[in-house]
Specification:
The structure holds 2 protein chains of 2 kinds. Helix content of chain A is about 35%, strand content about 15%. Chain A has 3 helices and 2 strands, in the order ααββα. Chain A has helices spanning about 10-15, 30-35, 65-75; strands at about 45-50, 50-60. Chain A is globular and about 35 Å long. In chain B, strands 1, 2, 5, 6, 7, 8 and 19 form a 7-stranded mixed β-sheet that branches. A 5-stranded parallel β-sheet of chain B has the order 10-17-11-12-13. A 3-stranded antiparallel β-sheet of chain B has the order 14-15-16. By secondary structure, chain B is an alpha/beta fold. The longest helix of chain B is centred in the C-terminal third of the chain and has 29 residues, at about 315-345. In chain B, helix 5 runs parallel beside helix 6. The chains are: A alpha+beta, B alpha/beta. Chains A and B meet through helix 2 of A and helix 4 of B.
């Protein structure tokens, strides 16, 4: 999709300012992991809540929507 | 209300970055808006071999990252934002962003570039990013051992095919005519690669698969005289999308092929939607028409165009950097002339109350 996407800036912000734990994966170095989640485009975001995968999206996600997505699972 | 900027540069590709370096060095404190494709098309290329000053070539990504660093060094600010509306005749100019913010600026450099064109095949909206891609260098590595298609017959399609041949089992270039548009050197490299095959006079009609399974197959159509989809009715598209095996289409042959990935290389469209209802003149394809001679001026004072968004012809990294610096100098000169005019008007002018 798009390599530089967001420079990762909004993901960094999400890590710093939300309750989510954020991990970045280098798909070139971790091809098996990427393949296990069916990743076929970068960037791909996978959201887990209570240990379960609850969402997966490909392409850049605007900052506001990233926070909305996470808050949908942390504000219950 | 936000403060009024001297210059807003929309776009962070090589043209926008060059404009940012120049306006920042002129102390205009430029604000650069990075849209949905930050860094522009250069971030999608591997080696740039024809940018002056790099005898060994330079990575497209490296060139862009260095350019951004250079602009920041002189004080350029970067923000993420996509312009949806532009009131270019107002003073100051107002830009409405997709997140609801409004920016105000005395001058505007439009360097929004061009984005990959989509083919219009059935199911492409759903499968883009799930095995369908416009960027081989981004997503090619997900297709180790796959059979993949590249759609297109120009240099960018050849570049994608050659890159994909490193990973995929087979690469089939699907081109709607019988001869390539690519330059001789790129066409020759592709032809000499044993993994790359060509499907002439053929087009992609539909893509099959799902977001969970990715792309699994494609329906191709061909016609001995080329441009097969022009010879089909709309109902055929729908039937192909539904997975029907097509036959009896007159002279057009249809075939379903199993593939794990599809890459588009069918050219670009300029990103000028937000200018459509403004007095900024666009040509029939949507490119900004700059006024005659060596200039980046548009029909609207204080609005300048730079890079691929105003250049359907050359579209090189170095020409985009060049028009970016021209737009910066044009904007600077315009701001100076406005400041002088404003100073002349000052004693008699009644201040507006905004």
């Amino acid at each position: 999709m798009w390599p530089l996407s967001d420079d990762g800036a909004s993901i960094e912000k999400l890590a710093a300012e939300s309750d989510a734990t954020v991990a970045k994966v280098d798909v070139d170095a971790r091809q098996q992991l990427a393949s296990a989640y069916g990743v076929r485009g970068v960037p791909t975001s996978v959201l887990f809540a209570d240990g379960e995968q609850v969402d997966q999206q490909v392409g850049m996600i605007p900052e506001e929507r990233l926070f909305d997505l996470v808050e949908g699972y942390t504000n219950e | 209300m936000s403060e009024v900027q001297d210059v807003v540069i929309v776009g962070s590709g090589v043209a926008g970055l060059s404009a940012a370096v120049y306006t920042a060095r002129a102390d205009l404190d430029p604000l650069v808006l990075e849209g949905p494709e930050p860094g522009g098309q250069l971030t999608l290329t591997t080696d740039v071999e024809n940018y002056l000053g790099f005898p060994e070539g330079v990575g497209g990504m490296e060139l862009i990252q260095n350019g951004k660093e250079q602009a920041e060094r002189f004080g350029a600010e970067f923000e993420h934002g996509t312009v949806e509306t532009a009131s270019v005749e107002d003073r100051p100019i107002e830009l409405g962003l997709s997140n609801g913010d409004v920016l105000r600026t005395r001058s505007l450099v439009v360097a929004t570039g061009a984005s990959a064109r989509w083919v219009g095949a059935e199911n492409e909206d759903e499968l883009m990013g799930y095995g369908l891609s416009t960027c081989a260098t981004c997503d090619g590595a997900f297709h180790r051992g796959d059979d993949v298609l590249v759609i297109g017959g120009g240099d960018s399609a050849m570049e994608e095919a050659l890159f994909l041949a490193k990973f995929a089992d087979t690469v089939t270039v699907v081109h709607r005519r019988e001869e390539l548009r690519a330059s001789d050197i790129m066409a020759q490299r592709a032809r000499e690669n044993e993994k790359i095959e060509f499907r002439w006079n053929a087009e992609l009609l539909a893509i099959h698969g799902s977001q969970d399974d990715g792309v699994t197959a494609a329906t191709l159509v061909s016609h001995p005289e080329g441009h097969p989809t022009e010879k089909l009715g709309d109902d055929v598209r729908e039937r192909a999308a539904a997975g029907e095996t097509l036959n009896a289409l007159g002279d057009v042959q249809a075939e379903r092929v199993d593939v794990g990935g599809i890459f588009y290389g069918v050219g670009h469209v300029p990103n000028t939607d937000f200018l459509a209802d403004t007095p900024v003149d666009l040509d029939a394809d949507g490119y900004i028409e700059t006024t005659g001679g060596m200039t980046t001026d548009t029909d609207v004072e204080g609005v300048f165009g730079a890079g691929d968004v105003m250049d359907p012809e050359y579209r090189q990294a170095i020409t985009a950097a060049g028009t970016g610096s021209m737009a910066a100098l044009d904007a600077e000169a315009w701001l100076e002339s406005e400041a002088i005019a404003e100073a002349d008007r000052q004693p008699v002018e009644v201040q507006a109350d905004d």
